[in-house]
TrEMBL record:
This is ATP phosphoribosyltransferase. Heteromultimer composed of HisG and HisZ subunits. GO terms for biological process: L-histidine biosynthetic process. It catalyses: 1-(5-phospho-beta-D-ribosyl)-ATP + diphosphate = 5-phospho-alpha-D-ribose 1-diphosphate + ATP. Lacks the C-terminal regulatory region which is replaced by HisZ. It comes from Slackia exigua (strain ATCC 700122 / DSM 15923 / CIP 105133 / JCM 11022 / KCTC 5966 / S-7). Residues 50-199 form the ATP phosphoribosyltransferase catalytic domain. PANTHER family: ATP PHOSPHORIBOSYLTRANSFERASE, ATP PHOSPHORIBOSYLTRANSFERASE ATP-PRTASE. One of its GO terms (cellular component) is cytoplasm. GO terms for molecular function: ATP binding; ATP phosphoribosyltransferase activity.
Length: 211
């Protein structure tokens, strides 16, 4: 049996559309709050976990493979193989600020983010001193309330920024969903893992994916 760590939410639904095969044998519909799904026909078990945690399950070998955003991989640097860019879940990591803001550079820049490592690496490259404030959601609120000057966060459609009077002032990198594998699983179960991946790569991206 192959175990797969899937991110809950939109990335996970898109992933299951691909992994469940064209016949949609395994879906999240009607699964309620269950966190383990079994596709007995394909001998696959899915674990539904927080998007930021999939790589932890894979790195520790309790899942053989998983799906993680490139953003999470760059932030946490897990010791796993990154096998494929799955092409969905596309977004950018950006610096965003209240519309019209400019950096007066007279004090360390206060940055609210869920990605303190990515933020620090970016501003170290530019030689700009920063202070990071780590938040776990609704990061866009921070500059509105004076908690930070700017944010470093994911932007997909840009709607959250626009609706909160913010704008992207710099793109740091592009992200998308990546297929990752545990290193020893990939050594010992390579043919089973490759078969699962092959099925996923052959499923058209447009097959009703709700991402
Ligand atoms: C993500 C991200 C932004 C938003 C961007 O948050 O952190 O807030 O999506 O998407 P948009 O550009 O299409 O508006 P998510 O919805 O995952 O919730 P969160 O605020 O709890 O992180």
């Amino acid at each position: 049996m192959i175990s797969i760590a899937l991110p809950k939410g939109r990335l996970g639904r898109a992933a299951l559309e691909r992994m469940g095969g064209a016949d949609g044998a395994c879906t999240l519909e009607g699964q309620g709050r269950r966190l383990v799904l079994e596709d007995e026909a394909r001998n696959i078990r899915y674990f539904l976990v927080k998007p930021s945690d999939t790589a932890i399950y894979v790195e520790h070998g309790v899942a053989d493979i998983g799906i993680a955003g490139r953003d999470v991989l760059l932030e946490t640097r897990p010791d796993v193989y990154e096998l494929h860019d799955l092409g969905f879940g596309r977004c950018s990591m950006a610096v965003a600020a209240p519309t019209g803001w400019h950096d007066a550079r007279n004090a360390p820049l206060r940055i609210a983010t869920t990605y303190p490592t990515c933020a620090r690496e970016h501003f170290d490259r530019k030689g700009r001193q920063i202070e990071t404030i780590t938040l776990h959601g609704s990061v866009e609120l921070a500059p509105l309330l004076g908690l930070s000057d700017v944010i470093v966060d994911l932007v997909e459609t840009g709607a959250t920024l626009r609706e909160n009077g913010l704008e992207a002032v710099e793109r740091i990198f592009e992200s998308s969903a990546r297929l990752i594998a545990n290193k020893s699983s990939y050594l010992f179960k390579r043919s089973e893992i490759d078969a699962v991946i092959q099925g996923m790569l052959e499923t058209p991206a447009s097959a009703g994916i709700d991402a």
